[in-house]
Design goal:
This protein is mostly helical and 192 residues long. Helix content is 77%, strand content 0%. It has ten helices and no strands. Helix 4 runs antiparallel to helix 5 and helix 4 packs across helix 7. It starts with a helix and ends in a 5-residue tail after the last helix.
Amino acid sequence: MERTGLRDHIAAAILDAAARVLAEQGETASMAAIASASGVSRATLYRYFPNREALVAGLVERVMEGLGTRIADAGVDGVPVPEGLARVTRAFLAEGREYAALVRLAEVHEHKRRMGIDDGDERISAPVRSLLARGAADGTLRPDVPEDVRFEMFTALVERALGLVIAGRMGVEEAGALATGVFLDGFRARPA
């Protein structure tokens, strides 16, 4: 058991360092630079992540886990839809800010495509879709707009807000409030 804990700790340290190095150096970041930043030898790095693709896969999984946890912890089921959307948006922006490099790496998007991981990952999309459906059912959101369109529009606004946060043009709270407000204003249920 102790060995597994140490192994997990080392893998986490490597992924933390990889996120930092990739944020700084982008696509040109080498495995050697990541090993150096994580304080392990290249041989150790390759034992944990045999190639760059495996390292990127580890980062993607870590982000998905973190985002899934943040959304679950947001408690969106027990609050009104506008507050739930605000909480989900802040969760996306806070997690995304920590892994800014992944947003920019083309290879991440290719890995997600090959592995069948997309924005529809159930840990993330199910609570959001449920919240949007509840909003349409309770009259907060327009019921005449198809569910998939509501989801696409909401996630597109959040992605753009994340770009503003990563670029340092807005903070998480400010960008989150703006994205949520724009979505709610555009999708507010129309009087009959």
